[in-house]
Amino acid sequence: MIPVNAPFLGKQELCNVADCVKSGWISSKGKYIKQFEEEFARFCGTKYAISTTSGTTALHLAVSALGIGKGDEVIMPTFTMIATAYAVLYTGAKPVFIDSEPRTWNIDVTKIERAITRKTRAILPVHIYGHPADMDAIRKLARKYDLFVIEDAAQAHGAEYNSEKCGAMSDIGCFSFYANKIITTGEGGMVITDDKKLAERCRLLKDLAHSPKKRFLHTDLAYNYRMTNMQAAVGLAQLERIKEFIKIKRDMAELYSEKLSGIPGITLPVEEKWAKSVYWMYSIMIEKEFGMTRDELMSELLKNGVETRAFFVSMHAQPVMKGMKISGLAQKYPVAEEISEKGLYLPSGLSLKKKEIIAVCDTMKKLSSGGFKK
Length: 374
Ligand SMILES: *Cc1c(COP(=O)(O)O)cnc(C)c1O
Fold this sequence. Notes:
Strand content: 5-15%
Number of strands: 14
Distance between the termini: 24 Å
CATH topology of the largest domain: Aspartate Aminotransferase, domain 2
CATH superfamily of the largest domain: Type I PLP-dependent aspartate aminotransferase-like (Major domain)
Radius of gyration: 21 Å
Number of helices: 11
Low-confidence stretches: none
Structural class: alpha/beta
Shape: globular
Bound molecules: pyridoxal-5'-phosphate
CATH architecture of the largest domain: 3-Layer(aba) Sandwich
Number of domains: 2
């Protein structure tokens, strides 16, 4: 079986974790936390990085630290992973969902302005599958209407928009280090910002809001979102190799696209001229001409030992969103609907071999040209 993804861990990760265990620094104090945060901020080109327990908590921390809550609205793509919407809902604010644009599957920036109301406080783009959203258009609107911009860069560590790093192009950026992300800490997350006050607010809220003046005196309702030193130890070792990881992802995408380009009925991922995608997952869409549906292809591939994943189900179609008093849920999201129905991603792990990629493509070719009979 060729798995859709697998973490890629090395000797340095093991060595760093062993150091934590031997030294007893296994909780959220210790040298790796500080080093990982500093090195991650340096990598992204921001002044501050604050580690958290997950991408979900990084997003929640960011929205909370900006003071967004009840009565507020946050504009985001409907086509995303559910944590983006949850993070906003946790604060009492409401997400407002926007359709995708058909090329990169990111938020359709031409549809944002008409969704802005007096309640709107922020725009929250997601750099989907490692391809940056159109940040200039988003930042322009944010300036015009005095809104915050929060980036969900959970799938886009090291991706670039006109040479600017994803996550570092706005008020605050959020990352995940779940096992299948570009780099991992097992579970974990990070918030990055250039704003000192915002960074301090994040630090306060992630650690139960201990008053800086007196311990065990608390001024805010806060959280325990502290990453452990052991997780940071893994993260630091992973971060040392991130450029290599990104190159592996980009080379993988290039080979997939080359091998799949001749097969009818497959829409390949694009990279806009202003973008450097990190191809978190090699994502494609299956069109009618392919000769079978996306779901049929997925089960045929599985029979041939190839694991794949369908695209996200959009937020407006999620049962959990009904009854949350979210406006616009019933409106049409034709692009997101189409993407959710036709999209899948192919095996994209960092340890995937060239010959495995070729084998996947050969299987696809065989299936497309009548290798499948109903
Ligand atoms: C993975 C992911 C998250 C959530 O991260 P966790 O670490 O799993 O909590 C949020 N947003 C997007 C776009 C993601 O891909």
